Write the structure tokens for this entry.
Amino acid sequence: MSTFFRKNLLPLATLIVIIIFFLAAAQGMNSQDFVITLLRGLSVGAVTFLVASGFSLIFGLLDVLNLAHGTLFMIGAYIGWTVFVRPDTFVDLLTPLALALSGFTLRDVYPLLSDRIRLSLSMKRILPWALILVSALLFILVLPRYPIAGWNLDNYAQSPVTYSYMADQGTRLPPPTVAFDQISPALAIGGLLLVSLLGSFGLSLFDQSARRSPQLTWRSYASFVILLFIGLITFIFNDALTNFLLGLNANWLFFIAVIVATLSGAGLGALMEMTLIRPLYSRPIYQLMLTIGLSAIGVQIVQAVWGRPEFIMPKPTLFNGSGASCPATNFSSWWQGNCSTILLLGGRVRVYNEILIPIIGVLVLIAVWILLQRTRLGMIIRAGVQDREMVEALGINVRRAFTIVFALGVGLATLGGALAAPSMGLSNAMGESLLLDALIALAIGGLTSYPGAALGSLLVGLIQQFMIQYGQIGISIPFTSLVLKPTPPIVPASTVLLMVIILLILPNGLLGKKE
């Protein structure tokens, strides 16, 4: 124990100073303001942690700087909104998405197939580009003709803003009806499946380091069959599934929206790693350029699909109640009235923002830590990072484990986006601001440290909320009658200042390890 304290004397001393600083800041507030500020700081810290933890996992274990992480957080929010507010659009998209992604699950089949292709060297260089070009042309030809219920960005009455407002008022606008009038169902399904197979095979030919599969098993085709089955089933039962979701309780629909956003992020992360990141593991500069480009593309896609205006995402009814019994005085009355706020020490606390989100943040922290430290997958991941060749010599597919890590990191970001959407609203810039906070949190806690991501996020959330609160009540200058009220620009500047001070004392962050 004494050895531990001697080795970590400086980080512990820094933490003690930070704690003393927050305790001193609390002395200028009454208990009501302090509790509310503390809970709001925990809420902001929890959302920041979901982004920072995914970034930290990807960089710490795979050594990949994913600068598209903030955009993926934003995409998670918009996906969650789509499932919650427009479930008919979500159901219509299931079939084309499942078919378009199915081919990418045959990653173990493509190396064996490419070995059987007997072409000249020049043709082997041309073939990947030709396959990708044909796939892209088919995609452009088929998808716009596939009937998908959506919205009209040029008509305010049918825009996402109106749909959000009406859903928040408890009323759903009737979804538009769509039909196959521009392409036959068989051509649409067959074309999307061909797009997936050609595009995924073409991209696989760029990965020259792919491990050859000497023997294929049923597992090599299982994911492909599952996605194909999902696509066909949702196509056949489209109307029934749409009506079921539209008639579902808002609480369950919100839960489904969060799950779908998280799984979509994990799937998107796996797709990014297998097709784009994997060939660039030894080229960090190319990784940065690629992820920056993906971030810009993601923002443009969101603007094209959902528009530029900001809009809200309704809270589930469990956290959106109002009336004579609200605000709730205890958790029993909250449960009965589904109140959006509850009284703590005389102050109103938003149940969804300040109670639910911090609880989910803690649960995610514990779950991912258990996954990395107490499971076989976590052991494989940590061993693969240390000595990839040795682990592969034991017959373990390390590349698949790395894909899971990337998928997990992106899934955490989209989970954060779906959870944050009802509290902070949806906008095209929400990802950039969260990514900046997450990077500051990682610099404070330690860039490759998972516990450091949690600690840094907590400090970022607390210092921001304390600054916002003091901007309202002011800071009394000792021995004078002056009261200083921090202006809004000081809120982000305060986290940067804390980061600079900590990095000057501890260049690796509070919990970072020396390289």
